[in-house]
Automatic annotation (TrEMBL), chains A, B:
UniProt xrefs under SMART domains: DHDPS
Classification via InterPro entries: Aldolase_TIM, DapA-like
Protein name (database record): Dihydrodipicolinate synthase family protein
Pfam family, one: DHDPS
Record family assignment: Belongs to the DapA family.
SUPFAM superfamilies (UniProt xref): Aldolase
Alphabetically ordered keywords of this record: Lyase
Keyword set includes Lyase: yes
Amino acid sequence: MANIFTGLSAFPLTPLTDDVVDEQSFVGLVESVVAAGVDSITALGSTGSYAYLTADERARVARLAVDHAGEVPVIVGVGALRTSQVLANVDSAQEAGAAGVLLAPVTYQPLTHDDVFELFRTVSEYTDLPIVVYDNPGTTHFHFSNELYARLAELPGVASIKIPGVPGDAEAARRHVAAIRAVVPEHVTIGVSGDASAANGLNAGCQAWYSVIAGTLPSPAVEITRAARQGRASDAVAASDRLAPLWDLFVEFGGSLRVMAAIAEERGLAPRGCLPLPIQPLDDDQRARISVVVDALGLDD
Amino acid sequence: MANIFTGLSAFPLTPLTDDVVDEQSFVGLVESVVAAGVDSITALGSTGSYAYLTADERARVARLAVDHAGEVPVIVGVGALRTSQVLANVDSAQEAGAAGVLLAPVTYQPLTHDDVFELFRTVSEYTDLPIVVYDNPGTTHFHFSNELYARLAELPGVASIKIPGVPGDAEAARRHVAAIRAVVPEHVTIGVSGDASAANGLNAGCQAWYSVIAGTLPSPAVEITRAARQGRASDAVAASDRLAPLWDLFVEFGGSLRVMAAIAEERGLAPRGCLPLPIQPLDDDQRARISVVVDALGLDD
């Protein structure tokens, strides 16, 4: 059986309607990424608004994801500000039947490297579920070092590290990934996020892509991942380059989340205004520009 | 009656014992700052670990603060990641008898200025309680502009703006505060935080000091505030300068929170390890250095 922390992991949105989880939309997103052939689903990632949801909402979403993912393994985001809240989320992920947990060092007060190590050590001792170390400085404002990656990778539960986007230059990306690989044992996979650099990251040796777009637009993500994993590096880059107008919108509109929510809403996969307030939806002009891009990319198939 | 958003507001810790709020310690801190003559108490500020506590814990802490503050007005921190959670906290603050609420734009996903304006507008329409706009970029990573201050200050509920530390140079501090004052109507007070620059901020025209140290060491904060508010600018600066070894420890040990927790623990005002995990307590060497500083400052009286 393949290591579940390799290949393409799709991060579905957790759409809300009137501040309540829209379970039907969420199930629809899960079923559609399963049908598209993703390798795993990560429910309650940043794209799944985990940080905004209550413990009960998260338990329910984890359950829905597992129940509708069929044979596709489900990783569940368990991050929270307080260690005891993380452990409660681990419990509900385990009860739901998760295949692993994704854990970011969520911060309000800045955390030290020792704080973060102790958090992961505590979770690693608490559960037998494999752990994905989630390095997302854009949301957590915590900055990992390769030395901390190495310390964490020694913990028995740690199975994968989700790194931020890699450098745009292919050779620089290879050096970047190789430097992490050099300090992390073989059994711990390295997965890239930052969708715009995913092809580059996979070509540079990342074994997984933890993907925002795959949660809503799985087909092009499957294509990029297959090409890279089959050694067709230039095909992967070409497939990614075709999505450049989408990557540009991520930059222009302040990140991938609002753009992907707008796309899901536009395509009827989520109700209008599906993100938790205070995150405002994009406006009509922005949505019109997104529609033009998505239509031109032929992503409606 | 004086505007309650002027003078010295003390931010007590919310000590935990084994991950449960230590109500006796919290009440002790509230009673001791009341006895020291602070002008208001802000419960559940950053120092009070609001972001880490559940809605129920926050409701209980708000109630305890009001019940033990006597005639001293209590402001309650209501910030949360999700607008609906903020409103729930406003409800519990109101039920507790709070005199006002403190609201920071807590982030996981980065927020736009429009997101933050709409958050404050929503809260302003929801409650009659006066609102303190809480600008704390070190924890929220959200950056206000003077233009946003001005927009928020037009909202009917907004009564005060808690700004970060001001420049160290007195004249630069005056220009800094004057620039904010110029765009904010008179009825909205400006309060300084960043304890090391509080004397400078008060001398520069801030009407309030939202103070971390006053939650645990109120006497020197009362002295600084009185001097500044009575126009004895150089006395205020001198009193602040005497605390320079403490300000240095804040910088060296990554902020005021862990230092103040260690001081409270050392003085028997809070149980050992009173901060929510994953925030680790300072180690024994660090505590020894803090004790030397506190003893030398004669703050044990």
